[in-house]
Amino acid sequence: MDYPNDQAPGAPVRSGIPEHGRIPKYYAVKARIAALLEELGEGGVIPTERDLAERYDVARETVRQAVRELVLEGRLRRRGRGTVVAGPKLTQPLSLASYTEGVRRQGRTPGRNLVTLDRFPCPDALAAETGLNRGEPVWHLERVLLADEERVGLESTYVAVGRVPRLDTDFDPDSSFYAYLTTRGIAFGDADERIETVLATPREALLIGTPPALPMLLIHRISRDVDGGPLERVRSLYRGDRFSFTTRLSGTTRLSG
């Protein structure tokens, strides 16, 4: 099937041109820089703001706004004092699959850096949300998520100590928590998941290594075992410029609109 130039699959509607047809100067520069990225390829260093401003005969602030948007979209990334062409985003399925499996399927090497592992009595809010008993001991496992040594997210997991009493001694923090549960005969049944866009807190931005203004994808998950009992509560924060998520809708799903 033939598509108009601005209606090809994956292209923005009308290529971002407003109905009145007047294109903001920064957007025109952004489009020209985007074409340049195709020539440079992944890892290529783009010219400086001054060089781009001279090349396109615009003010440096116009170039700065265009580059800023390309960084937020994940098409460029900062490296040291320069800006380079970013690789494709990591795509994670919305399913009961581990982060490790999703990253490995894309030929990348997953990893995690432990931030904290502690235990405390289950607070009222967590008990109400998960079905755990108020006051029962729970673990809190917090780790920075890596892909090829690049920091891409932050994950916090809450699980009852009674489920995994030796988590602090038997578990390798750099490994898959789901695989750890499986080896102990704990099977996942189902889960409720919610996604929203947020800005990282100053602490989260520092741990992930991103500017506080960078949009993040936040996933809340409450998992249950095959008997419907509470299993884990997970809060996963992913860089919006490095991740996208996919799911499959079955024919029984009713669509509207």
TrEMBL record:
Keywords recorded for this protein, A-Z: DNA-binding, Transcription, Transcription regulation
Give one GO term, molecular function aspect: DNA binding
An example Gene Ontology biological process: negative regulation of DNA-templated transcription
HTH gntR-type domain boundaries:
23-88
Question: Where exactly are the transmembrane stretches of this chain?
Answer: none
Note the Pfam families from the entry: GntR, UTRA
Under SUPFAM superfamilies, the record lists: Chorismate lyase-like (SSF64288), Winged helix' DNA-binding domain (SSF46785)
Superkingdom per UniProt: Bacteria
| Record's protein name | GntR family transcriptional regulator
Organism of origin is Streptomyces pluripotens
